[in-house]
Write a structure and sequence with these properties.
Elements (H helix, E strand, L loop, with lengths): L8 H38 L5 H20 L13 H24 L2 H8 L2 H13 L5 H18 L8 H16 L1
Amino acid sequence: MSTPPSRPSIDAAVSATDRARRLKGIGFFCLALVAFTILDTSAKWLTRDLPALQVTYVRYLTAFILAALVFHPFRAPDAWRTRRPLIQLIRGLGLFGSTFCNFMALKTLQLAETMSLIFATPFVIALLAGPILGEWIGPRRWVAVLVGFMGVLVVTQPGFATFNPGVVFSLCGVLDRKSVV
């Protein structure tokens, strides 16, 4: 039996760098999940006593201030310019509307129910990708999307006996999110 050839030292350095980047990416993803969980939990708590529109406004005002502090866009005036202001405005309003709908849904739904409805987003994207973008999805991917959507249906257990207006807001948030993508 022969021994496998040893890798050159440069491969070890590259793979160590790749591993470090992957771990960093996983760490940022986990931090993002924690941040979104805190955001949704605080929105649910705040919308008990405050209008959802006000909570949404403060959410984006806070995000703007934090981003300005971190990225210093005031030092680079070009950061404020865009070649397509109308599209930027539409995307911004879409994101604002999606967040508003999500916060309205959180007023009456549990966090888990709201999140499970948001997981219907891939189904909507797959449904609209062909007619809008011309990117048609094959049968195997449709099966995967439908299995995932069935999981959403199992979690949400839709029915007319337990209808909640929060479900409509959550689904509007899902549809509005498409305008952002």
